[in-house]
Structures are given as C-alpha cells and as structure tokens.
Amino acid sequence: MKRLVVFILLVAMLTACAQPPAATPAPPQKPTLLTDKLGEAQDLVPTDAEVAAAKSALGTGKIGIIPCTMGSEYHSTVTNSAVARAKELGITAEISDPQAKAEAQISAIENFVSAGAKVIMICVLDPAVVKPALQAAVDKGVYIVQTSGRESALNGIGISIEDADLGCAAGELAGDAINTVLGGKATVAILDYPDLPNVVIRADNIEKCLKEKASGATIVGRFKGGTTDFGQTSMENALQANPDIDVVASINDAGAYGALTALEAAKKDPAKTIIVGIDAEAHARELIKAGGMYYGTVDTNPAETGVMGINAAIKLLAGATVPKDIKVPVVKITKATLQ
Amino acid sequence: MPSQNKISLQRIAEIIGENGFIFIFILWIVILSLTTQTFLSSNNIFTVLRQAAIVSIVAIGEMLIMLLGGMDVSLAAAMGFSGIVATSLMVNFNIPPELAGLVCISIGGLIGLINGILVTIVRINAVIATLGMMNVLNGMALAYTQGKTIVGPQLDQIAFLARGYVGPIPFPVILMFVFYIVFYVILNKTVFGAHIYAIGNNDKASWLAGIKVDRMKILAFTVAGFLAGFSGLLQASRQGSATSSMGNEFLFPILTAVILGGISLSGGRGKIQNTLIASVFLMTITNGMVLLGISLYVQGIISGLILIIALSLDRLRYRRR
Lengths: 339, 321
Description:
In chain A, about 50% of the residues lie in helices and about 20% in strands. By secondary structure, chain A is α/β, with parallel strands linked by helices.
C-alpha cells in the first residue's frame, strides 16, 4: 500500500514538474491547393519569402519524415536527401523508420504529432491501414506530404511516383527487350512482393504493359521477390519448374539482383537473358553498364523526390498556392541511356 | 472382418502419430513426386538442400539454446550484421577473405557471448535480451550500410562457399552435413551434450549435481553466435552482396525449423537430426508450391496449413507418450 501511495505521489510530482507544451505559434495562412492541375517539381521551389514564412510558422516544431523503410537504397536516398534539404534551409527534420511495416507507420505518425511536427512527409505503405492515423494528424492541423501511393494526400501535397507508372515502365522495358533482343518470344517470370499492396500494383502493371508490348511473351508466374534472398530463392525454384525462363521483370532492383545470381548459376546465356528492375540503384546501373543480363531499370529520381518533399512542406507552411498533386517523371534506364 | 479393419486403421493412426511431422513431409514428397516431373530430379533436390543449408546451420545454434530452455531471436540479425561487416571489410577495405571471414565469425561469437552474459549474469529473460540485441543489430546494420547495397568483385573470392560445387554436390550442402554430423556427435556422445540435455530438463538439479549451468548457457549462446556469424558469411557469398535487411527473413524459418523439429520450448528434449529434416521440409514447401504452379497469393495459406498439420501431428506424438 505504501509503495502504491509513493508511486502515485511520484507520478503526481512528475506530472506537475513536466514542462508545459510548447506554445503553438499562430496558424499560417491556409495554403491554396489546386486540384485541377498536375504539378511538376518546379511548382514546389519556394521563394526566400516563403522559406522565411515557413520557418516562422514552424516555430519550434519540426518536419517528421516517415519513409517506407530505410533498408533499401531508394527509400534511404529519398529520406537522406530530404533531411539534407531541410538542413540546408535551417529546418528541423527527423526520421522514424517503420521498417516496411504499415502498422509501425501509425505509431510513427502519432509520435510525430505528439512531438510537435507541423508537417509529416510519408511514404505510405498501405493507405487503408495508415489513413485513420493520418486523418487524426490532419485534424490537429498537421500538413501531409505523401511521397507514394495513388491517392492524393490528405490536407497536403501528393508527390506521386505512381506505382502503376513504375510497373508499366518496367513492363515496357522488358517488352522492348523481348522484341529487340529475343525476337518477340520469351518465357517471363515476374518478381512480386504481395505483402505490400502498393507494390502489387507495380507487378500488375509490369504484367499488363509487358503483354501490350510483347504479345508473344509467355508469363509463367509471379514469384516472391523484394529482397535479394527472396529473389534468388524464388528464381532457383522457378527455374526448376520452368527452365526456359529467359526474362525476369522485378518490382525492384534488390530482388532482381537475386534473380541475376540464380540465372547465372543456371548458366543462362547473358546475351539471351533479360532482367529488368525498378529503382535505378547504383549497383543496377553498374550492371546495366557492364552489359550482361541486367537490361534496364526504372529511375524514380529518389534524391530529387526528397528535395521536392521538403519544398512541398515549405510551401504548405508558408500558405502558398500549390498544385495538390505533383508527378515525378519516370525514366527508363538502359545501357544506351547511361552512355 | 470389421475388427480387423479397426485394428489396421488404429495401426495407421499409430504410425502417423509416432512419426509426427516427418509423416507430413513424406506425404508432401509423394504428392510432389506424383504431380511434378522435376521434384525428384537431382538438380531440384540439390537446389532445395542448398536453400536449406544456411537456415539449418543457424538452427543448430538455436536448437542448443532451446535445449537449455531459452530462445535467441537475434540470431538472424547477428547473421545479417556479421555478413555486412565481412563484405564491407572485403569491398571497402580490401581485407583478404580469410581475415574478413574470421572477423565475421568472431563478431557472431561476440554477439552470442554478450547475449549469454545478459541472460545468465544480468538475468534478463532470454527472449527479451535477444529481442533487444536484435533491434541493436538491425539498427547498426542500417546505420552502417545507410540502406545501400555493399557489392564488389572482391566478393567473388568467397563465392565458392555458398555457390561452389564439389563434383555434383553444392559445397554448402556438404558444409551443412558436416556441421550436423559434428553437432550430432557433440550432443549425443560427449559430456557437453549430456549436460545440455540435463540442464534443459532441470537446471536446479543439474546445478546441484555440479554442472556449471551459467557457464554452459554462455557457451551455448556463444556457439550459436559463431554459427550465426559463419552463416552470415555464407549468405553474403550466396547473394554476392550485402544489404541492411540481410538476414531479416531468416528469423521465422530458423525458429520454425527448430520447433517443427520437435525441440521442446521448455528445453531438454529433441533430436538434432529432426531439426535438419525440418529445415529441409520448410524449403520443400516453398519449392513444391512453385513447382505445382500455385499462385503466390495463396502460397502463404498453404504453407501455413502444412505447418499447422505437421506441428499438430507432432504434438499428438508427444501426448501419446
């Protein structure tokens, strides 16, 4: 009983001694979000006056950055680039890594709101899971900059690297290669990652656009990729069932590396085997340049996306007039484009 | 006649009950052999065994700890972190592969030693201590790699470890069997093995009998760490690269292999050979579903059901005893 009383007293003292919440600065002018125009990167470049206004609106607050994961080169580049841009502008930006778990993004959002974030820049893993937490943040006046997903951001700007566009670009790359290198006929395996709904959209569009480009190709199935080990194990198994596989289109580069190892181990002819990935990682570029099986990848411009995310946050905080949706161009990378 | 039928049905039920998950494994093999043309090909069998090699080697370490009544959830992370350090030493600092490999294995051992100390001397619950260690290692892996893939031609020097062949047999498969033979002998023919089982059955009685319980536990965690470190090197060799998330996907198969192999969660009971069979079984499930052309989107349901049935039969076996 004594312990209980002491505990209650301690809690009461701590509560009394706790610092009062930071004074909330006056809310900035509400930004005008134009929904009828699909914006571009230059629409987000802030003026000096907007940067000053944003800093004033931010006060002691911060920008919270929630990537999909820091465990992939693409996402870590987006995030690190955003942090660097914020630093350049003299703004506090902090990262919370959900490690590719949508549920962990909910806690990250809640924690940032509690910590006084005025803008949350987020790569949404699963819109259905995260939306209620984002809505709760919006209800508290937080702006959202969304760097992924098909839906427009709640109360903010969606910098949309459409998974459909990414998938389609990879599918078209693979289709082009099938037509030019393999004479229109191919046995194709798609590396998917069904744990994440947004990524499945990529795989769906790889399949759709590949079929449109190369109607003579036979898609033998979708196999689990996403990580190098999954990609490798899946391709080893897939090659047992379908030894004729000569094209692999992957939802990312990491899974494609594993497929490459498996195809090399199966002694596939590099001149007649095609691998296409997404993300344009540095290693993927090296492989493409080297001219082996790795035919191409899709560049999503992660460094620029990070900068755009912070620029969007500045615009929102400054109450500027901005397009609600900004499209990041998708660029196909092949040996020819690298040269 | 009906009574004869009843007896034979009873006998079948007994055979199924006696052989637990192995019965399901055999049934799965029969199904795949009858429905696919490639499952029983030597090429496919070696593919499955090669895929099982790394998981099964880490599973030996997990099994040692679980025989003592503990559990280590950081082994997959230790494996990943050790592999990252090894690849980085080779790629970024041009360290010879032998030295990098030695460092890799030592790091695994050191992680295991720290886990052992946390569990025995600091007296933290094994799952909690190793859960903390897992987070530390995952964080360190991320901080060290900055999310980037570590890759370079230097890694060709270790390619043989996981991708090489001795005759028609993949080298990692040979390694796997060597490890299992060595640890089979250790567990079944040495005082060390007898002490492990004794402590798992009753650590107080073992202590009263003069067995140095804490020292044995620290040793088991350290050995498990060494095995994880070595497996990290194998995984880096298998991938020909290292990423911050390397090893993350191994936690579930490692624990499943050990539990499915019949190692009691309360310790003191289980056979090492069953852990090997369970590791191979796990890989056969994925391999078989691909060979059968089962959609990726329903593979999780089927693999889950197979595991539940196998585990249920196995527990039935112990209940009958």
